[in-house]
Amino acid sequence: MNEIGEKIREVRKKKGLSQEELAESAKVNLRTIQRIENNESEPRGKTLNLICEVLDINVEDILDCDKHIDKNYLIYFHLSVLSGLVIPSGNIIVPLVLWLTKKDKIIGLKNIGANLLNFQLIWTFSAFLILIAAAFFKITHLVIGPSNLLIFVWVILYVINIVLPIFFAIKTRNGKTDNFYPNLINLIK
Asked: Do the domain assignments include residue 186?
């Protein structure tokens, strides 16, 4: 029971909310928030759902006592995509290993990791297809224009996959732990 009140207080403070603001946004009595944070009572059902909704966290993350907030790990997780610059498919393999080892221990990592990995799988597949198409047009000399255009598109995709992880790591360092990557297809949940 001690864990839940402490976690709610910690997340509330990280979000920059006062107890009054949380109570008003969650449509819960201020005294209820105070009791929960002082470990005098344990939130249940609708109250817990309303508080978690305002704090933008999953109820499971609050109830799971083994989980903790580790912003540094989330930053490194976003930056692990850059290993693809050195290791072929490193943009998938390294984040996958990091995700699998800590997804049940760090709050938010399960969703952020699935979102990042889905994006990386789609990005890698798309970049590979574009590169193969460019090589095909270059080798066959069927049409010269598309191969140069496809190479340009591939370079733009590559730059995007360098800039996005750095940008999202900076956002995470500044306290935002959302699912940043566009989620087109859910291959990993």
From this structure: no
